[in-house]
Design a protein that fits this description.
The complex is a heterodimer of chains A (115) and B (113). Chain A has strands at residues 4-7, 10-14, 19-25, 32-38, 45-51, 56-59, 62-67, 72-77, 86-92, 104-105, 109-114. Chain A is mainly beta and 115 residues long. Chain B has 113 residues and is an all-beta fold. Chain B has strands at 4-7, 10-13, 19-25, 31-38, 42-51, 54-57, 64-70, 73-78, 87-94, 102-104, 108-112. In chain B, strands 2, 4, 5, 6, 9, 10 and 11 form a 7-stranded mixed β-sheet that branches. In chain B, strands 1-3-8-7 form a 4-stranded antiparallel β-sheet, with no helix packed on it. The termini of chain B are far apart. The chains are: A mainly beta (115), B mainly beta (113). At the A-B interface, β4, β5 and β10 of A face β4, β5 and β9 of B.
């Protein structure tokens, strides 16, 4: 099955600086890579995703890059703000429609933005 | 928020007792999942379902069973709860094709004493 590794496990940044979280995956058939944000005491929610036919995607201050050859993808947060403090999870999924369609998550990164 | 609810939200139970957690959706999504969340381990898949009566094991399925007798409900059962099953449990749903986003329930905090 798919194995997703995520680094670092914790990340502390000064407000206004950038944050980068990196993930690697093992199954070359995986073709969809979402990122979820979980605020303290709440459920995970999708913040951005990327498909295997795209190398980069941006949405305001967040961006995701994908390197299929190396089987790794990264989340970039620029101009960090206190509300970016949360746990971030990367995930990988096989092609849609398969019976074994499931999200395999990384272990999470706790991001703390210092004022 | 997507129509997904978990019950109960909190439960304290004794070692050796059976426990059933319920996940209910109103979205008619094909896929349903049960995850457990523990510090340092992220979200680990317990079991998942890809249709009514179609289920399969995830990476941490020992000690858990599931059932899905209708599209909207996915039940997670701990046959004989142990302290190692103290955790926060999340249910998630996913349409699997047209919409790729997975939606999570509010979570159930289970404590086994």
């Amino acid at each position: 099955g798919e194995n997703v590794e995520q680094h670092p496990s914790t990340l502390s940044v000064q407000e206004g600086d950038s944050a980068v979280i990196k993930c690697t995956y093992s199954d070359s058939a995986s073709n969809y890579f979402p990122w979820y944000k979980q605020e303290l005491g709440k459920r995970p929610q999708l913040i951005i995703d990327i498909r295997s036919n795209v190398g980069e995607k941006k949405d305001q201050r967040i961006a995701v890059t994908l390197n299929k050859t190396a089987k790794h993808f990264s989340l970039h947060i620029t101009e960090t703000q206190p509300e970016d403090s949360a746990v971030y999870f990367c995930a990988a999924t096989p092609p849609f429609g398969a019976n074994d369609y499931k999200l395999s998550f990384g272990a999470g990164t706790t991001v703390t933005v210092r004022a | 928020d997507a129509g997904i609810t978990q019950s109960p939200r909190h439960k304290v139970t004794e070692t050796g007792t059976p426990v059933t957690l319920r996940c209910h959706q109103t979205e008619n999504h094909r896929y349903m999942y049960w995850y457990r969340q523990d510090p340092g381990h992220g979200l680990r898949l317990i079991h998942y379902s890809y249709g009514v009566k179609d289920t399969d094991k995830g990476e941490v399925s020992d000690g858990y069973s599931v059932s899905r007798s209708k599209t909207e409900d996915f039940l997670l059962t701990l046959e004989s709860a142990t302290s190692s099953q103290t955790s926060v449990y999340f249910c998630a749903i996913n349409q699997g094709y047209m919409s790729t986003e997975a939606f999570f329930g509010q979570g159930t905090r289970l404590t086994v004493v």
